Structure formats: structure tokens, C-alpha cells
């Protein structure tokens, strides 16, 4: 994690996006483009608008793309990148950084390699740059592939972390993933993983924004060479895991007004200033470009102090907490770190 900002790509859009060296693989551009859509969890297909959005994002200057098996967007992302190569917008697939994630139904020994091979097939690629365990929990595989809830709480089971991580390491050894890591892991779970990992995780992707600052986790990761990546930097308004405090914040609105920026730019800049990579998500072309306009200005010490005083809470809060599962309380799931939040009702999560 030492070479922050030593690398950077000047794109056709004239945007220089700094990159950071990870413990494995090639440097990761510090600002990425997310592909989760309302079709989350449906059978793999062409998630609404993803191909077109990714082509616009490439034109705007993005070179880091974040997806997951559960997003139903891998094929659409792969199509967009292939089209961009054919059109000459990028020289080759190697010019982009692609992250995908292992869904909890496949977080079992014996299912990891096949899951990654399916992801790579969906993407139409030979490898991913980074492959993450999506959550530190497993789900009993369904008897039939269907389009029901993405998380059935009564089917949550403890992950065989050692067995799953061994297969993640095998994915890297075979070159199917150039780097491996985790997502939604708090300190205690990371410590457990590090106790047996032969290849340590290169990155940990978690919710990060001014109302979920993750200072304890960031220090833990920094000390161990694990790059923190922030998702939902704007609070993910309109999703099942939204934290609406962010875009509605009078404090952030005032900072934005003082800097002549948008609230979104203030949030993304704040995450960037922490040394994290940040995954943005907007399919609107002008906002895509706006979200990259964060490199040539800074927040003031006063801005940072105001942000550090905001109350913390999670949008991604209790989806994996259930009385019959391995994590019976929010405190258990998040290792006691940032345990305030709001329960969201969503058809993506079922208790039965």
C-alpha cells in the first residue's frame, strides 16, 4: 500500500486518475465505477443500462470497474469493455482494472473456483484483477436456481473461512485472479483470516462515507498492507442499503457551498483524502464526470473537523443478522465497530 499516487493513467478524456500499488497484481485506480443495479440477484443477463453506462464511463475517464456475481451485471460489463477495445477507446482489456466478488451461496469449499470461472465466462475475460469474498458469511446453496430473495436469513451459515480462503489463494495461483481480498470484513474477522492466510488479502471493500468513517478499520488495514476501498461514498440513496444521512446532511451541504462543489464531490474527495480507493456509482454522464473532478482541490482542516464530528451509522446494517444464523446481533457481525444503523425492508432479503 506504500506507493499511493505514484501511478496514474491519463485517459483520452484528459483525466489523470491516480492509482495505488496493492500487495498483488497491478496498481488499482483510486476512483472506480460501480455496476450494482435494481436487477441485483436476478439470473445473469444484461442488467439494465450497464453496457451503455460503462461505455460512457470509459469515455469520461474511468478505468476501474467494480462488479459482483450477485449484481447480474458481469456480462454487460464485459460486453462494454470488449466494445471499447473494438472501437479503440481503450487499447486492450489490460488497460482496465476489473473487480468482482464471490457471492455467499458460493462461499463454501469446492464452490469458489467454479464460481470464479463462471464470473470470468460472464465477463468474457481470461482473468479478473481483484476477486473479493463479498461478505464474511455463507448461505446454504439453493436447491434450485431461482429469482427469489438474494439473502434468505434462515439459510445463513458460518463460513469455513480457512477452506474458502485456500480456494481464493488457488484462484490467484492459477492466474484467474491477479489479486484476492475481502469485502465487509471488520477487524476481528480480518485478524482471524490473517492468522492462516498464505496470501494475505490485498484489499477490503467496505461502506465508507462521512457518516461511516471506518477509522479503526482503516488503521488496522494500513498497518497490515491491506488497501481499504470505500463503497457507497454518497450513502447509496435509493438502494436497499441506503444511508440517507449523507446527501441530506446540512453540514455537508454547507461545506459543498463553501468550496463551490457538490455534496457528492465533497464526499468522494473526503474518502480519497483518507487514502482509500472509492467506488462511485452514477449512470448519469454529467455526474460521472463530476465524480472524477476531485483531484485538483482539497477540503480545509475545518471541513475535516466538521466531518469527524458527524454521528456514525451504517446503511448496510443487519442483512446478515438472524437468531438462527452465525451472527445473532449487529455487534457480532460488525465486531462492535459502528453498530448504529437502520433496518431496511427489501424483497432482496427474506427471513423465511
Automatic annotation (TrEMBL):
It comes from the Eukaryota. PROSITE patterns: ALDOKETO_REDUCTASE_1 (PS00798), ALDOKETO_REDUCTASE_2 (PS00062). The active site is at 71 (proton donor). One of its GO terms (biological process) is siderophore biosynthetic process. The record marks 101 as: Lowers pKa of active site Tyr. The keyword Protein transport does not apply. Keywords: Oxidoreductase. It holds the Pfam family Aldo_ket_red. The keyword S-adenosyl-L-methionine does not apply. Substrate binds at residue 134. Residues 31-308 form the NADP-dependent oxidoreductase domain. InterPro entries: AKR (IPR020471), AKR4A/B (IPR044497), Aldo/ket_reductase_CS (IPR018170), NAD(P)_OxRdtase_dom_sf (IPR036812), NADP_OxRdtase_dom (IPR023210). GO terms for molecular function: 3''-deamino-3''-oxonicotianamine reductase activity. Belongs to the aldo/keto reductase family. This is NADP-dependent oxidoreductase domain-containing protein. It comes from Urochloa decumbens.
